[in-house]
Fold these 4 entries.
Entry 1:
Amino acid sequence: MLRARELGLERGGRQLFSGIELQLERGQLVQIEGANGAGKTSLLRILAGLSRYGFSGSVDRFAPQLFLGHQSAVKGLLTPRENLAWHVAGEAGFSAEAIDAALAAVNLYGYEDVPSHALSAGQHRRVNLARLFLTRAPLWLLDEPFTAIDRAGVAALEARLLEHLQQGGGVLLTSHQPVAVAYPLLRLDLASGALL
Amino acid sequence: MTPASAAGFCFRLLRRQLVLGLRRPVELGNPLLFFAMVVALFPLGLGPAPDTLADFAPGILWIVALLSNLLTSDAVFRSDLEDGSLEQLLLAPQPLYFSALAYVLAHWLLTGLLLGLVSPVFALMLGLAPAAIPALAFSLLLGTAVLSLIGGIGGALTVGLKRGGMLISLLILPFYMPVLIFGSSAVQAALNGSPAGPYLAILGALLCISIALAPMAIAAGLRISVDT
C-alpha cells in the first residue's frame, strides 16, 4: 500500500533519520518509535505527501489514505456534526445517520449540536477520530491518535484499529503509549532505521 | 472507494466558509466599518468643501476598498492552517484549484459583494454625483472579485508566517494597481458623462484572467505554506 525508499531528513543541520526503508502491506500494523524530536511526525508527513521538499528518498502510495495529524481540525463555530460532515466531505456522501453513529462511537452522543468551542480538547480530538469509523480509505497514517483520549476512548479506538486490520487495512501510527491491540505489531525504530 | 465529486466538494467548502463567516457577524461588519471610518477621515484631512471631495471621491473610494480588501486577505487561510483543516484539504482527492476558488468566492461574497452593495451610501457621504454611482457600484463588484483572487495568492503565501501583514501588502499591492486604475477610471468616466462600459469591460477581462490563473498560484502557495 505504501513503499518508502532511502528516506532521510535533515533539519537545522542535524540528520534526523536516514536510510529508512518501509513497505506497508495490507493487514499490517506498524508503529514508528523514537524519542521526542526524533522526527516521527516529520516522517509521517513525508509519507502522507504533505512534505514534498527537503527530504531525500522516495515515497509511493498505492491506496487511498487517511492522515490524522496532531491538530484536530475542529472549528469552534461549527457543531461536531458539521465538523465531521466536512471532514469526510472528500469521500463519497455519508448520511446524517452514519455521521451521528460515528459520533456516538467516539462517545459524543448528545453533543452533536453543541458548538465545538464549548467542548474540551479531548472531545475535539474525538470529533476528529470519529472519521476512523466512517472512512473507507484502506491506508491509515495516524500521528499520536491516543493523545488526550481517556482510557475508555483508547479501548474503543484500539477495537476499531483491530477491526480495520482484520478487514485488510494498513495502519501506520506514532504513539508514546504502548498499543494494546491483539495483532502482530511491527516497530520501526527511527534511530537505527530497523523494522522489528 | 470513490471520492466525492469536485463540484459537490467545492459547494460544501463554500457553504462551510459562508456559515463560518455568518456565525461571526463582527468579522463581516469590521471591513465595512473600516471603510466608513477611513472615508470619514478624508473630509477632515482635505477640508469639507464639497467640490474638492467630489473630485477626489472616485480615487478615495477605490483606494479604501483596496485597503479594506488587503486587511481581510491576510486571514482567509490563517485559522484553517492553525487548526489543521488546511492539511486535510490538501490531502483531499479533489483538485485544489477548485477548492482555492471556493475559498476566494466565499471571501468575496462576505467582503466585496457587501462593500459593492453599500458603496452608494459612502459615495453620497463624499458628495459623488449620483450619475456616477452605478459605475462605482459595478466597478467595485467586478474589481473586488479580482482583488479577492489576488489577495488569496498573498494570503496563501504568507499564511505560514507569524506576522505576514506587512509582507502581504508588499507582495500584492503592485498587482492591485491595474484594478485601481481601471476601477477609478470607470467612475471618473461616468462623472465626465462618457461611457464607463469600456473600463468595466477591462475589469471583467482582468477578472477572467484572475479566475483562470490565481487559483493555481493559491494552490501552490498553500502547498508551500503547509510544507514546513
Entry 2:
Amino acid sequence: MPSLKDLKIRIDSVKSTRKITKAMQMVAAAKLRKAQEAAERGRPYAEKMRVIVSNLASSVKNVTGENNFLGDGIDSKKFLLIVATAERGLCGGFNSSIVKLAKSRIAELTSQNKEIKILTIGKKGREQLNREFESLFVDHFDLSDEKTITIETARKISKNLISRFEKGEYQVAEIFYNKFASVISQIPSSYKLLPVSFNEEEAGADSISFNFEPDEDEILKEIIPKSIATSIYSVLQENAASEQGSRMAAMDNATRNAGEMIDKLTIDFNRSRQAAITNELIEIISGAEAL
Amino acid sequence: MTDKFELSVISAESKVFEGEVESVLVPGMVGDFLVLSNHAPCISSIRPGFLEFSEGSSSKQRYFVSGGIIEVINNTVSLLVDLAIIGDKVVKEDIYTLISEIDEKLAIPDITSKDDLGLRKNDLEEALKQV
C-alpha cells in the first residue's frame, strides 16, 4: 500500500498531466479551425484547376514523347511513393495509419516486382519507415519550420517531383495522406499525382471545343506543374486539418483518462487516510484500556 | 450598355475577386486580349502583367498578376492566378522579388527553360514601368 505522501504526489502529477493534455486539446481545436478555413479557401482554385486540366487533356489527342505527364500509368515499372505525415507526434493513430497504408502498398508493389522509391514529407513518417525501407528513400521534406502550409511549399515539392520525373527516376507517383472526413474521423488515403489522368466526366461542359492560346502543348507544359503543386497543396492542407483533428481527439481522450485516474487515486487516498485515522484511534483506545 | 458576364479571379490561397463585369483585359501569353460577353470558349496562359476589368462604365479595377491561366466558357471567365495584387497596392518591391527569383533560376547552369524565363523577366520589367 503506497503511503499517503506517495499518493498525494501521484495525484498532483496526474493533475498536471491533465492540464497539459487539456491545453493541447484546446490548441489543436483552434489550429483545426484555422486549417479547415485555409482548406476551404483553397478549394475553388483546386476544383477549377482540375476541370481545366481535364478539358485540356481531353482535347490533347495525340501525345507522344517520353516525358509524358498524361496517361494511366498501368504498365509502369517505377513507382515513387510520397508519404506525407506530421512533424509532431501525440496525435493518436494519425501518423501510423498513413504509414500502415503506405507499407501495404509497398508490399503489394514488391510482390509485382515493381521498382519502388520513397519520398517522405514530415519526419514522423520517415522515422517509422526508416527501419525497414531506408534503402528506398530518395528525399525528404521537413515542414517543421512552417506554421501553416503555403502554396510555395507545395510548389517546391512539385518542382522536385517534376525534375525527378523528367529524369526518368519514376513513372508513377502516389501520395499517401489522411483525408479529412470529419473532426473525429480521418481516412488514410492515397492519390495518384503523376501521370495526370483525367476522366471525361470531370471535363463536363459537353466537350466544348476550346480555343487554345498559345497551343495545347504549351499550355499543358505551363499547367501541369501548377496542377501538381495544387494537388500537393490540397493534400497537405487536408493532412494538416486531419492532424489537428486527430490530436484533438487523442488529447480529449487523454484528458478524460487522466480525470478518471485522478478520481480513482483520490478514492485510494481518502481510504488510506481514513484507515490511518482509524488505526490511530484503535491504538489510542487500546492504549487507554491497557492502563 | 454592354452585357455583363461572370468573372472570378482565384489564387491558390483565396478568392481574389468574384462578380459581374463588362470587360476584362487579360495579359495573354502571346499578347493582351480583351474579353467581352459571349466570348468564344478558350483557355490561355497568362504572363505577368496587369489585369483590368470594369464592373460598369465608371469603375475600373486593376490587378497585378504574376502569371496563371484563364478559362472562358459560357459567359463565365475564370482566372487562376499565382499571385494577384490590387493595382494601387503593387509596390515595385513585389516585382523586384519576382525578377530576382527568375535571376536565381537563370543562374542555375543546366536549366532547360532559359528562353521562357528570359521572356518572363522582360514581361516583369515591362510591368515595372507601368507601376
Entry 3:
Amino acid sequence: MSLLTTLARLEAVHQDRAQPLATVRHRHLSDRPMVVVPLAAAGEDGAPLAAMLGTDRDAPRLHVVPQPLDRDQRFAFLAALAGDLLPYLEGYGEETEQVEGTEKDPETGERLPVVRELCADAPQLVVPNSAGVHHLGLLGRSTRFRRTADDADAGPYPVPSRVPLLGRWLTHLRERAEVPGSSMLLAMTALLGRHWATGQSHLEDQHLGALLAWIAPPPGLGGAEAARYAESARDGRGQLHCPPAGPATDPRFDEKLLGPAVARHDAARAALRAAPPGEAARAEAHVRRTADEVRGLLEQVLRPTWDQVWRGLDLLRALPPGARVAERWEGDRWSYTGHRERLAAGEPPQPRFDDAVTAARKLAQREREQARLDLQEALDDPLAMAEHRLSGEAFAGTVEAVEAAYDTSGRTPKPRPLVTVRTGDRPHADPGREVHRVWGPPGEDGAAPAAQKAEVVRHDPAEGTVVLRLTSGMGRRREPEPGTVPQPGDRVCFTLFELSVRQAAPLPDPQNTPWTHGGPPGSASAVPGPRPGGPHTGGPHTGGPAAAAAADEEWE
Amino acid sequence: MNPADPTASPGAAADRVTAEILAAVLSGTERGVVVDSPPGAGKSTLVVRAARELVAAGERLMIVAQTNSQVDDLVDRLATAAPDLPVGRLHSSDGRPAPEALRHAGVTASPRIGDLAEQQVVVSTAAKWQWVKDVDPWRHAIVDEAYQMRSDALLAVARLFERALFVGDPGQLDPFTVVGTDQWAGLSWDPSRSAVTALLDHNPGIRPHNLPVSWRLPYSAAGLVSRAFYPFTPFRSGTGEGDRRLTVGAAGDGGPVDAVIDEAAESGWGLLELPARHTVRTDPEAVHVVARTVRRLLDRGLAAVSEKGTAPVTADRIAVGTAHRDQAAAVRAALTGLGVPVDGSPGPAVTVDTANRLQGREYDVTVVLHPLSGRPDATAFHLETGRLCVLASRHRHACIVVARAGIAELLDEHPSTEPVQLGVSVKFPDGWEANHAVLAHLAEHRVGLR
C-alpha cells in the first residue's frame, strides 16, 4: 500500500467517509453492461445455486438450481444461463470496423499491409466481487469440455448444446480478467476499491455492502456505522439485512431458510416419483411450488446485491473516464474479436493447462499491461501521479528560468536548453539521471507533442530547484521548434521512469519448446495437458509463428 | 561426499568439487550442469575457469548473466584472467557497457551479434539474448546467477545453445512478478519460477553440485548463514576462527553506536536496537542511526585484518542494505547530510542499495536496516528468505543490523499464510524460521539504544 493510500485511509477514518483515490475513472464502463450476481452451493464451489443477471436494472432475470447437487438441474440451469448470456456475448460480433496494419511475411520478412477486422464494441460483465470472477471461471472450466447430443460421440451424459460454448466464453472472460486494466469482466469491489479508500482493511473491502456504505452512507449515518450495519444487522428472523454478495451465502440463511426449503423440494420430488398415475398432476404442482419457494428465497438474498452493483455503477459513472481508458478498451475489443474468430474457425476449447510457451507469453503480456496501466493511470490522473511524486519517482513544479544552450560536439549545433524548475517535491534526481516530460492533455488539434527527455544537471533539495538539460523532442533545427521548450512560469511535470512500455521479447513456437522445458507439448517429458492444435496457434490473419505470437498477445 | 567434511582442507574440498563440475561440463552425459553456490563460494571464479577450459578445448561459448552490471563485471574478470581471449560484450542499442569492461584490449562491444561472430566468448544479459536471432546455436553456454533468472527467460534463450552450465545461489531472492500467476502454480514450466527449478523438473537426471566453501563469509558468519539458509547443503568458511579481524583505531565515545561497532569488530555481528515502535517505511530515527553508524565506522579508522593482509576499511568497503528503494534513498540523503560520500564517481563512496541490487556483491562491513524494523505486519515480501540471506551475507568481516525492538513478537503474530499449492515444492527453510534463527543469533550481540 502506498503512502498516499495509507493517508487516504487514515483520512477516511477521520472523516468517517471514503476518500477519493482517483479524479477520473480508470476502467471502461459499457453503456449496456451485463450485471451477473452468481451464487454457489455451500461447500461446493463448482455447484451453481443461482444467478441474477441482466442489462436492465429494473428487470433482473433469475435462474436457480433448486437442488444444487442434482446434475440434471445444474445443466438445465447452465443451459438457461447460456440462453441469456450468449446472445449478449455474441451480439457484439456483428458491427465491425476495418483496421489497417502491417504484418511480416514469413517467407521474405517483408512488411506487408493487412486489414484486420475489429469489433466496434465488446461485451462487459460486472460481478459483485473477485470471488464472483473466480466462480465464473470455475463454471467455464467445468463446462467447456462437456459433450452435447450434437457431438458425434455424445457419451452417456450429454449436456444441452450451448453449454460448452458458454464454458468457452466464461473461460475466455476469466482469462482476460487476469490482464491488468482489462474491462471485459469486472468485479465491483475491485472497481470501487481502485477509486475510493475506505477506513477499513482491504479484506473488509471485499464486502460490497460495507464498501458502498463507506463510499455513500445513508443519510445521517457515518461510514463506519453504515459498514457495521451492512455487515452484521439482522432482522427478526435472524437474517442479514444486507446478504453477502456471493458466491457464498450466509450460513444462517442456509441453515434456517434455504436448507429446509431444499429438503421440502427433495421430498416433493420423491413423492412425485412414488405417486400413482392419478396423483401425478398434483405431485408435479407440488414440486413446482417447492421449487418456486427456493427461487423466492434466493431472489430475496440476491436482489440487495443486484441493487448494490448498479449503485456502484452509478457512482463510477459520475467520474469522467480517463483519457487513455478507451485505448485500453481497444485491447479488450481485440481480445473479444480474436475469441470470436477462434470460435468461428471451429477451434477446440481452451486446453486444461497452458503449455510452457503459452504460459510465458501470457505472463509477458500481463506484465506489459500492468506497466502500461500504471503509466497510463499516472498520465491520466494527477492523484495517481501524486503517488509517484511522493515516492520520488516524479516531480512537478514551475519553470523559473530557461537558458539557451547548445551541444556543439557534432557537425551542427543542437539545442540543449537548460531549464530551472522550482518544485516542492523531493525526487531522487541525482545528476545525470534521465527524466521524461509529461505533457498535459493534447490541445484542440489533438496532436500529441513529441516525447521529450532531459538530463538532471543539478538538484538542490534544500532550495527546491532542479536544473534540467532538455535533450530531445525539440525538432531537428538549430533552434527548438516553438512550443517545445517550456517558458518561465509554465507548470511542468517530469518522471524518472520511462513513459512508454518496452516490448516483450519473442518466444519460440510451442512446437519448438526447448529441452530445458520438457520439449514440445505432448512429448514424453511434457507433464500435463497435450494441446492438439491449440486455440492459440493460428487464426485467419496470422502469418507465421512470430506474427501469430504478436497477434495472440493482443487477443488474450 | 560430505561438503562440510572437516578433515579436508577448505581449499582441497573446493578443488575436488570444481574438478567434478568441469568434468561434467566438458564430458558429462546430461545437457545441463547445475552448480549451487552459497554466498561468496567462488561462483565467479568458477565461471571464469569453466569459460577458459571450454575455450581451451576449442569450443565457442555464450554466457548469460541477468543484469548489465553482472555482465560488465564478468567481462572484466574474464579479460583480466585471460587477456588474450577475444571476448564479445553484446549490449542493448541504448546501453553503454561500463568502462571496466571495455578497458581490455581483447574485449569488443557491439549491440549486434553479427559484429561479434569472431569472438570465442560472447557475454550478455538474458534480456538481450532473447532478441538474438538468425545465428547458429552455440554448443556451450554458461548461465550465471541462474536462480535469479526466470523460467520464461530461459525458455526464450534455450534455443541458442545445446548444453549449459547453470551457476547460482539458491538462497538468494527468487525472481518475482507483479501480476497474478496462480493459474500456473504446480506446472513444471510455471513461467514465474526460477530457471533452475524448471530445468531440474524437466531433467530429473541432473544432480546439482554444491560448492562447499564460502571464501567471503568469515568464520563468524558462515555457520549462521549455512544453518539458517542452507540447512540441507551446509558449507563452511574458507578462513578459520580468528583469521579475520577488525581493528578499531579510535576509542569509542561510550555511546551505543560506538558500542555496537566494538561488538561487531569483536564478534562479526552487531545488533543496534531502537525502542519498539510502528513507523513509516523510511523510519527517520532508524535511518539516522544507520547513517551515524556508517559515519562512526569511517571516523574511527577501522582496519580489516585478513588472509589478504591488513587494509583500512574505506568508504568503498562499506555497504548499507535495505529492503526498499525509498529506504535506500533516505539513507543516502542522511549520509550526504553527515558528509559521507555516496556517489562513487568522484572517489570512494559507501554503497547504499536494496537487497535485490546487492546480490553478488562483497564488502568488508555491512550495515543493514532490518526488513521488519518498525513494521506493523510481516508480509511475504518482508519474510522472503532470500532478502534476509542477501543482506546477512555480503560482508567479509562484520555485519551490523539496525532494527526496532519487537521483531520476534511481530514474527510470532504473522505465521506464514501463503496457500499451499499442489505440485509446488515448499521452499524450506521458510522466511519465518530463517528470520527467527538470525534474530536469535543477533540477540547475543545486541546493543540497546534509548
Entry 4:
Amino acid sequence: MVIVDLQHVTYRYPMTEQSALEDVSLHIEEGEFVAVIGPNGAGKSTLCYTVAGFIPHFFKGELEGTVEVAGVESRQASLEQRVRSVGLVFQNPFNQISGAKYTVFEEIAFGLENLGVSRAEMPARVEQVMALTGITDLAERSPYALSGGQQQRVALASILVMEPKVLVLDEPTSQLDPVGTREVFGVIRNMALRGMTVLMVEHKLEWVAAFADRVIALENGRILAEGTPAEVLTDERLLEHHFGFSRYTLAAREGRKEALWPPDRRLPVTLDEAETGFREGLRRP
Amino acid sequence: MNIEVEDLHFSYPGGVEALRGITLRIEGGELVAMVGQNGSGKTTLVKHFNGLLQPSRGCVRVGDWDTRTVSVARLASRVGYVFQNPDDQLFCKTVAEEVAFGPRNLGYAPEKVEQLVRRALAWTGLTGREGTNPYDLSPTWRKMVALAAVLSMDTPVVIFDEPTTGQDWQSVARMARVIAMLREEGKTVITITHDMDFCAENFTRVIALGGGQVLLDGPADEVLGEAEILAQTFVEPPQLVRLARRLGWKETPLTIPVFLDACRRSVRKEDGADGAERRFDT
C-alpha cells in the first residue's frame, strides 16, 4: 500500500523565486525504508518538511501538485491527523527540544501527553523507547545539558515514542560517533521491519547502502536518480553532480581500470560486496 | 607552536569528571585528529587549548604561555577555534564584517586585515559573498563563514570541532584543501571528528579518547588499525582499513592510492608464487 504519495510537487519558499522542489513525484510503500541523498541545498530538508506537512502549514510559500500521506491530502489534513500520521526528527536536535520539560524522561513523554495517551500507559512506552535508543541512563538529566550526540538520540526517541505511521528523519546521525551511527540505523531499520515507513536524509553512504531499501538522489530540487542502493550509489551521474561515492565504490572504480576489480562485476556499495569483488579481482589464474 | 598538556583533569560543575589525567604534546605544524565516542572528552580537551575551560588539576601550555595565566582574548592570537555549530559563533551583519572581526581585534593594520580577509574568503569559497548576511546563507555556508572568521586571524594553531558534520562531498573536499593549505603554512591543525575516512585522508596523527583518557596516540596508520581498542570508544576504522582487514592484510591503507598499491603488490606476489593458491586466508 502506498502511504506517501507526492505528485508533481513544486514548492517555493516565501519571497524566493527559485523552486526548492521542482516537479517531484514520489511514492513510498508502507514499511519501506527510503534514504534521500544529495548535495547541500538540493532540497532534502524541504522534502522532509513537505512529507511531514510543515509545508504548507508552517512555512507557507507556494505549493503545487499533491501531497498525500496516509490517505489524506496534506492541505486538507488537520493538525491532529498530521501529528498522528507523520513524525519529523529535525536536522538540529536543539530546535526540537520542547523547552517545557526539565528531564529527558518528561521530554520524551511530552508527545504522548499531547496525544492524550493515558498516564498509566506512558511510563512503559517512554522506558521502552529510551532503551531502544540507548538513553536510559539520561532519563533524569536536563534535555539541554547533553552533548550533541545525546541530544540527537533524545530527539529521535521523542518522535519514535509517538509511533507515527511515517517517520521522517533529517540527518539524524550527524553528531553521532561511528558505532552510535550504526546503532541508530539499526533501530530505524527495525522500525521499518515492524511496518513503520521511513524517509531519511543522510550523507553517510556506507550505511545508506547497508540499510535502506531504496535511495533517492536529489539535485537542485529535482530527483536525479532513484532505485536500489546498488543502482543509485554507483550511478556515474552522482560523481558529475558532486554527490561522491563511498570509498568502497571509489576504490573499485579505480581498481577496475587495471583489472584489480573484476571488469564485469558491478561496483560495490557495501563492505561485503567490496570484499567479495576484490578477492575475485586479486586472484590470478 | 607547541601545545603541552600535563596531567590534565577537568570536572564540570555538578561533578561529571570529563578529563581524567591527560598528558600529551603536540608539536608545531602537526596535523592531529581527535576521535572518540560522544562524551569521551574531545571537546572538553580542546576547549582547554584556547582557555575556554581551565584545568581542575594539571596544566596546559601553548608555546610559552600557561593557559591559567593568560586571558582568552590573548590566547586568541595563538589558537583559533572553529565551533561545531556556526550559530554559536556568528554575530555580524555581513560575511565581510564577520571575517574581518577577528584580525581587527588582534590589532593588525588595515591593509593586513584586508589581505587576511581576502585570503580566508578565497580558501573557503566565499569570495563574492562579502555583503551577504551570514544568517541568509544555508547552514553549510554558515559553517564556511565560521571557518573563514577563524582562518583570517592567521593563528599558529587552528582547531576545528566536527568540521564535516552535515557537509556534503564538495564541502568536505573544500575542508580538506583548507587543511592542506594550513599545513603548507606550517600551522598546527587539531580537528575533532567522527568521520574516520576524512580523518584517514587528512591527518598524520590520531589521538583516541575514551572516558576522559587517552586510549591511543600515534601515527594515523597505526592508530586507525587498532580496531579493538577503537571499539572501546565506539569508533570503527575507516572503510578502506576495514576492507583491508577483511582481505586478510596487515597493512592499514588510509587512502585509495595506498589501497590500490597494496592490491598490486598482492597480485604480483601471487604471480610470482608459481601457481600457488590464492593467498588469502578465509
